[in-house]
Amino acid sequence: MPLAAALSPQPGSTSHIEALAALGVPRLYRRGTLLIQEGETGDTLYVVLKGRLRAFLADNSGKELTLGTYGPWEYVGEMSLDGGPRSANVEAIEASTCAVVTRATLLGYIADHPEFALELLGRLIRRARLATESARSVALIDVYGRLVSLLNRMASPPNERGERPLRERLTHQAMAQHLACSREMVSRLLKDLECGGYIAVRERCIWLLKPLPARW
Questions:
Q1: What keyword terms does UniProt attach to this protein (predicted)?
Q2: Cβ(99)–Cβ(105) under 8 Å?
């Protein structure tokens, strides 16, 4: 198999993750529980069996930047398996069940299934790329531009009228954490887009009614 193909995500392929999860210890986490704290040393990987987790950075003032959210058969914590400190915080954003896998167990699994090392490497590369894009966005793109990018990225394919609902419901606070800005700023921009006929809120879900303008 070509290296590029091996590093690419395989839709619907969870066999290795399921097998790895079976070797871990299942644990329950309440909503709001902090599983991983940035800067701490860790040697465990968490495979989500049920619920959702959020990886984020936070500064001393409490300002947060969401790096990603993860659902069933996704995993977090692999960035510190080299023995280094945790690179981000991870919390449960809803009641969640995870299989906790130790570094020794993961290395043993890779030894028995070396093809999984390429899958893990591909995931690390994609996460590094996303982190770079996120840093670039915060540094070089204004808040409105980041909001447009987030909405377009989370929108489902258009229906027969060209309208696109977001794949999940996000509060204004959650959007602010993705965009590294205040909740008030997000609320104002969304209200402006709604008044302009670009978006609508239906049953607490945002719909994109037409292409969003590049500038506002």
A1: DNA-binding, Transcription, Transcription regulation
A2: no
Q: What is the mean pLDDT of residues 163-172?
A: 92
Domain identity same for 203 and 144 = yes
Distance (Å, rounded) from C-alpha 162 to C-alpha 14? 33
Asked whether residue 27 is domain-assigned, the answer is yes
Together in a domain, 155 and 107: no
CB of 208 closer than 8 Å to CB of 164: yes
Q: What is the mean pLDDT of residues 104-130?
A: 87
Look at residue 137 in the predicted model and tell me its pLDDT. 67
Domain interval for residue 90: 16-112
Tokens of 15: 């066999």
Question: E-strand spans in the chain?
Answer: 25-29, 34-36, 44-50, 53-58, 64-70, 75-76, 89-92, 96-102, 164-165, 199-202, 205-208
In a domain, 121, yes or no: no
The tokens for 172 are 């204004």
pLDDT bin (cut points 50, 70, 90) of residue 5 is very low
